[in-house]
Structure formats: C-alpha cells, structure tokens
C-alpha cells in the first residue's frame, strides 16, 4: 500500500474536485458533468449569497450562472431533486438505483390510515389540472405524523395535509418537482417528465448490499478520498464500523476501490479505481496544480467530512448559521476560502440585490497566511466573480 503525504492527499482531493489547476468544468455542460462525477450535491433552501447547490457549482464551474442549474433541473430534466445525502440533486440517469428506496416509501405509506384515498384525489387533480404546490392542491385538513406510523387529523388545516400528501407521493416516485418559486415546490406527475426507459427501468442492484456498495462508491467518488472511519460523508448509509469495513474490503477485493496510507494518520484511505491515474500523477508530480482561489459552499462535497478537512489541512470549519449571534466566532454564513492547495481563510459576503452591491462583511485569514500580491490579486478577481454570480456590479468592504 502506498504512503502519501498529507499535502499529496489534499492535492489529490482538490484535483479530483476540480478546484486546483486549469478549470475542468465549464458552462452548463460542465455543471452537469460535475454533478455526474459527484453523484449528488446537497440542496439547502437558505439563500444568503446563493443556495448551497449553486455555491457548490460556482466554485469549480467556469462561467456558471444560477439559471444553468434551474435549466438542468426543470427544463432539460437531466438532474432531479430527491433524497440521497439529505436533500440532494443528482443525475436523472441514477433514478433506477433508488427503486428500493421508493419501494420502502410506498410500503410505509400503506400503513397510514386514509392516505390512499387522499393520494388518488391528489393524482387525479394533478392529472387534470397540472402542477400544484401545497397551497393550490384542494385537500384540506391537518395530518399528524406519529412514531407509530399512523395518520390522524381533524381535516381543517389545508396546507399541512396537502403538503404531506404531496411529499409522500414525491418520495414514492409518483411525483417530481416540476419547478420552484423561491423555496416553494410545485409538483407534477413523474411520468410526464421522466422517460419510460428510465422511469420503469429495472433496479441495477440485485440486493440492498449491492445498493449500499454502489452508494459507498458514489460518496468516495464525490469527495475523492475517504478514510475507514465514521464519516458524515457516509450519512444515510447506515454503516457501523463493522459493516463499513466489510463494504470497503468487498469493493477493494472486486478492484473497484484502491487504498492508500496518509502519513501520520492511522486509518487507511480509499479512492475509486478510475482515479488511479490521478493518484499516480499527484505522487509523481506530473500534474498541473496552478493555484486559483475559490469560495466553498458550507455543504459542498469537499466539506462533508470536517474531521477529514481538519486532519489533512489543519483547517477547522463550523457552519455557524444555527449558532446564536453572540456565540459566533465568525459570521452567519461564512464560506471557506481555498487558494492553491490550502485553505487560506473564510469570507462572509452578502449581496444587497436592491442596490446591486456585494457587501463583504468579514474576511478572516488563517494563521501563517501571507497577504502577497498574488494572493490579493486572486482575492480581488474571485470577489468580482462572486459579485457577478450574485447579480451585483459593485463590491463594498464593510469590516
């Protein structure tokens, strides 16, 4: 098993992510290519300076605009909103893999008294009238979800009942998100937007074990390099230490994963076999690592395992959005800043969309970072690009 330095491990991850060297992803096609590589990117509705999925793409896709993601989701239908690592966006072509997930949802739904009749009513209305949101679907009442998995209600509160029915049908795979207005979701029949060849395709995984292995591969490929350790990058896969070790060993035995040791770290690290060429290039130094600066989304695949980030880069990041203001060390929505193969700081930048101004409320450099002309030039260029991404023409520093 090869032993690499922490710097090489970091360079490998950043090169895989498309965050160092020449841009590997460009425009709408590049955005789609990156999502295919990552498998899924997390969706979060909070929009301070762009939603998380948009921020994820802007950091590594040259020329990315928010409209590109919207088009890929709701016009081109190459991507779909659905569960994976929390709420996510992933390629529509992966729809068949989640057959068992939808099967479990439908099985669970059958245990809810009264659900079937409400579903039939909702589907009939959508079939006749087109896309609906929870406040336009004519189903009234309030639904209470209990740990005993039963429904009850006094059918007086319209929004909660309609929302619950729509979300159940969406999880079942009967509906897809047709479009969004802000954070409000509009649903339509999946059969209207997903080709039959995909919608009715057989599950490529013959067992839950195969599905788990596929998802583990997907998560490792999304980050680039993951260790044999409890990791938030594996969130939702129900992996204890013993099962994780079995899955990693199984995939390695099949030649789908390669392992490597990182100096000073006990756990073995794994990467997908398709990235062997990249690992060899990093080890040999035969790779273009030209530095560029990026602002990274809080829930970016790169940041899924913050313990890994700390171990490899000695960079500690906490998303302080839910931290009381008096207890925040930095800001409400700070973004990690990468330059070259290092995390060099963090930034809080908020657009004043009415005035068309990006307000930089805070900028914190990491200890030991020297503010060279090269660094400052990269910062100026990246802030200008970030302002354009947020529809702003000017930048104001207020810190």
Write the layout of secondary structure elements.
Elements lengths: L2 E2 L1 H12 L7 E2 H12 L2 E2 L9 H7 L2 E2 L3 H9 L4 E6 L1 E6 L7 H11 L5 H15 L14 E2 L5 E2 L5 H15 L2 E7 L2 E6 L6 H4 L8 H16 L2 E2 L13 H13 L3 E6 L6 E4 L3 H9 L8 E3 L10 H8 L21 E5 L2 E11 L4 E9 L7 H17 L4 E4 L2
Parallel strand pairs: 1-12, 2-4, 17-18
Antiparallel strand pairs: 3-6, 5-6, 7-8, 9-10, 11-13, 12-13, 14-15, 15-16, 16-17
Short description:
The chain is of the alpha+beta class and 399 residues long. It has 13 helices and 18 strands.
Query: What is the residue-averaged pLDDT?
Result: 93
- CATH class of the domain at 110-193 equals Mainly Alpha
**Which architecture of the domain at 110-193 per CATH?**
Orthogonal Bundle
Say which CATH homologous superfamily of the domain at 110-193 is assigned.
Winged helix-like DNA-binding domain superfamily/Winged helix DNA-binding domain
The strand count comes to 18
Percent of residues in beta strands? 15-25%
**Uncertain regions: pLDDT < 50 for 5+ in a row?**
146-159
How is the CATH topology of the domain at 110-193 named? Arc Repressor Mutant, subunit A
Q: Determine the number of helices (DSSP H or I, runs of at least 4 residues).
A: 13
- Report the span from N to C terminus: 48 Å
In the sheet with the most strands, the strands line up as: 14-15-16-17-18
Report the major sheet: 5 strands, mixed
């Amino acid at each position: 098993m090869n032993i690499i330095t922490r710097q090489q491990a970091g360079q490998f991850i950043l090169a895989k992510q498309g965050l160092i060297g020449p841009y590997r992803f460009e425009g709408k096609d590049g955005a789609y290519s990156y999502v295919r590589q990552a498998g899924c990117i997390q969706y979060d509705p909070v929009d301070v300076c762009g939603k998380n999925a948009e921020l994820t793409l802007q950091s590594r896709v040259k020329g990315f605009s928010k409209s590109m993601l919207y088009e890929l989701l709701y016009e081109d239908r190459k991507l779909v909103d659905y569960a994976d690592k929390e709420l996510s966006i992933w390629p529509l072509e992966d729809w068949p893999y989640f057959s068992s997930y939808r099967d479990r949802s439908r099985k669970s739904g059958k245990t809810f008294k009264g659900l079937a009749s409400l579903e039939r009513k909702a589907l009939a209305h959508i079939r006749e009238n087109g896309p609906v949101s929870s406040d336009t679907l004519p189903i009234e009442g309030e639904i209470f979800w209990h740990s005993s998995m039963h429904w009850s209600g006094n059918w007086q509160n319209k929004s909660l009942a309609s929302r619950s029915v729509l979300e159940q049908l969406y999880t079942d795979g009967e509906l897809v998100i047709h479009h969004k207005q802000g954070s409000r979701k509009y649903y339509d029949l999946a059969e209207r937007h997903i080709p039959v060849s995909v919608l009715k395709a057989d599950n490529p995984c013959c067992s839950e074990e195969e599905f788990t292995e596929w998802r583990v591969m997907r998560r490792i490929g999304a980050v680039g390099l993951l260790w044999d350790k409890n990791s938030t990058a594996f969130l939702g896969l129900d992996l204890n230490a013993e099962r994780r070790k079995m899955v990693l060993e199984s995939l390695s035995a099949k030649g789908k994963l390669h392992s490597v040791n990182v100096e000073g770290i006990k756990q073995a690290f794994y990467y997908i076999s398709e990235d062997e060429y990249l690992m060899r290039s990093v080890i040999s130094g035969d790779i273009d690592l030209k530095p560029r600066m990026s602002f990274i989304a809080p829930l970016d695949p790169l940041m899924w395992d913050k313990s890994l980030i700390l171990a490899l880069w000695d960079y500690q990041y906490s998303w302080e959005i839910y931290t009381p203001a008096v207890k925040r060390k930095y800001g409400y929505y700070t973004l990690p800043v990468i330059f070259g193969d290092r995390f060099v700081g963090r930034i809080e930048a908020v657009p004043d969309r009415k005035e068309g101004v990006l307000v930089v409320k805070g900028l914190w450099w990491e200890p030991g970072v020297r503010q060279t002309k090269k660094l400052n030039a990269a910062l100026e260029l990246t802030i200008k690009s970030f302002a354009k991404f947020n529809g702003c023409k000017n930048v104001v520093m207020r810190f």
